[in-house]
Write a sequence for this structure.
């Protein structure tokens, strides 16, 4: 059979469920999930092969990025438009409990591609409340394709995938057969630590910490040993990250270590060190 290819951008606001949907479709964690804004800072691609068709999903930053003009959000906007440019179809993911028509119209006008609207988290809203909203959107925007899903509980995803397959085009695959992401395991382990930092630290601090892998090795007994540097640009952050008697950094380490062990299916020994960037 001829190889086919389909590239899909997952678009939506922060917490719409893009990363949850991606991880569910791929069957493994390729993108971290956190309720804070701009969890997805790099352009992560998830890959799934169905028969002779390779589908590449682009996990884009939340649409909230267009409200900010700082350096971080500038890079996120570059990542976003790169995904839109490369993709064949946009899956616009909506949190079914929080749909604002005016905001939706503004965002849809930015996107000049075939769009499939996906109403996520249908497990959290009654059907008779969602249907009038769908009818209003259908009347206002003339979008042909709607799907109701729950990414968390794997409801409606197979129907969505079966629909998307028909848009694949004859083309050589970009990734090898068993590859599920454009990122490696070291990236995923760094992301687990970033997820822990986002969970236990607040305000702007998590976005001012750069995580760098220093050591990554599978031991003879099958365990995984990792050393990571948490690089800060201001020395005053160190005390906050460590916490009283080192309790905060301990929670961050344990949270990340447990997540890494679960994702990579091996006992993990994680070591963290907080250092100041010498360039500052």
């Amino acid at each position: 059979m001829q190889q086919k290819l389909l590239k899909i951008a997952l678009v939506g606001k922060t917490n719409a469920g893009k990363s949850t949907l991606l991880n569910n479709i791929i069957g493994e964690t390729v993108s971290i999930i956190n309720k804070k804004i701009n969890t997805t800072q790099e352009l992560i691609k998830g890959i799934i092969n169905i028969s002779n068709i390779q589908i590449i999903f682009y996990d884009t930053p939340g649409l909230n990025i267009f409200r900010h003009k700082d350096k971080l959000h500038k890079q996120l906007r570059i990542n976003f438009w790169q995904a839109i440019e490369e993709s064949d179809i946009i899956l616009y993911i909506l949190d079914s409990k929080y749909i604002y028509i005016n905001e939706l119209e503004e965002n849809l006008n930015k996107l000049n591609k075939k769009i499939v609207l996906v109403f996520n988290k249908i497990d959290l809203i009654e059907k008779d409340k969602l249907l009038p909203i769908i009818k209003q959107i259908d009347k206002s925007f003339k979008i042909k394709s709607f799907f109701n899903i729950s990414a968390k509980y794997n409801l409606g995803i197979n129907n969505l995938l079966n629909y998307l397959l028909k848009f694949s085009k004859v083309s050589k695959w970009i990734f090898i057969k068993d590859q599920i992401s454009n990122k490696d395991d070291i990236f995923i382990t760094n992301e687990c630590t970033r997820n822990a930092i986002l969970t236990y630290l607040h305000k702007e601090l998590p976005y001012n910490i750069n995580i760098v892998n220093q050591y990554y090795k599978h031991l003879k007994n099958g365990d995984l040993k990792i050393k990571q540097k948490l690089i800060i640009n201001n020395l005053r952050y160190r005390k906050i990250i460590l916490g009283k008697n080192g309790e905060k950094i301990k929670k961050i380490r344990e949270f990340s270590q447990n997540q890494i062990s679960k994702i990579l299916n091996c006992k993990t020994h994680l070591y963290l060190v907080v250092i100041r960037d010498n360039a500052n």
Remarks:
- The first helix runs from residue 18 to 26.
- The beta strands are 4-12, 44-50, 53-59, 89-95, 114-120, 146-148, 169-170, 209-218, 224-232, 268-276.
- The helical segments are 18-26, 71-86, 101-108, 127-141, 157-165, 185-200, 236-242, 247-264.
